């Protein structure tokens, strides 16, 4: 799901790019990034927030990371089962999630708010965490088995053809 929308009013504030990988491997570290444009002028960033929703039908989104450049602490992390944020590597529009697992699968939203007017824009994308390489390795194993059977079959046909030719040649020479 790719969704970029304006939440409050029309403004020049916009999300330029939201980078959320569509698929990641279980146990991996993943970086989410949100690039934005405040529209020039003297607009300044009030906050950049990251939200998580378990799926498209779930209306309950939960904030898990907030960056406020003018309010200390600048970075705030809100613990969420399955979304393990490396706060030291996360800054501004960049969030690093470690130890991805089944519960990490879901929709991720970046929300930008402008200082003063509090105009807000947001973008959202889905990410799926794939299990261990079991599916890939099973497919590889099946492919190898099929290749071995095919090679065995070709050798058998070749040997049989060669043996049959020898019999035919020998009968001609009799």
From TrEMBL:
Gene3D superfamilies: Immunoglobulins
Superkingdom in the source lineage: Eukaryota
Residue ranges that the Swiss-Prot or TrEMBL entry lists as coiled coil: none
Keywords: Membrane, Transmembrane, Transmembrane helix
Transmembrane segments: 143-159
Listed PANTHER family: BEAT PROTEIN, BEATEN PATH IIIA, ISOFORM D-RELATED
Protein name per its UniProtKB record: Ig-like domain-containing protein
Taxonomic lineage of the native organism: Eukaryota, Metazoa, Ecdysozoa, Arthropoda, Chelicerata
């Amino acid at each position: 799901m790719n969704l970029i929308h304006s939440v409050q009013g029309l403004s020049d504030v916009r999300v330029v790019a939201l980078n959320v990988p569509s698929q990641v491997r279980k146990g991996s570290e993943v970086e989410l990034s949100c690039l934005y444009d405040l529209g020039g002028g003297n607009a300044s960033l009030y906050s950049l927030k990251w939200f998580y929703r378990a799926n498209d039908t779930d209306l309950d989104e939960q904030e898990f990371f907030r960056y406020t450049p003018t309010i200390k602490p600048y970075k705030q992390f809100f613990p969420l089962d399955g979304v393990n944020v490396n706060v030291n590597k996360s800054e501004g529009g960049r969030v690093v999630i470690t130890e991805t697992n089944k519960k990490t699968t879901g929709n991720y939203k970046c929300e930008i708010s402008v200082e003063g007017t509090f105009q807000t824009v947001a973008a959202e994308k889905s990410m799926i965490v794939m299990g261990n390489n079991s599916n890939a390795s099973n497919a590889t194993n099946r492919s190898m088995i099929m290749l071995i059977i095919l090679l065995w079959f070709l050798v058998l046909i070749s040997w049989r053809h060669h043996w049959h030719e020898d019999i035919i040649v020998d009968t001609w020479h009799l």
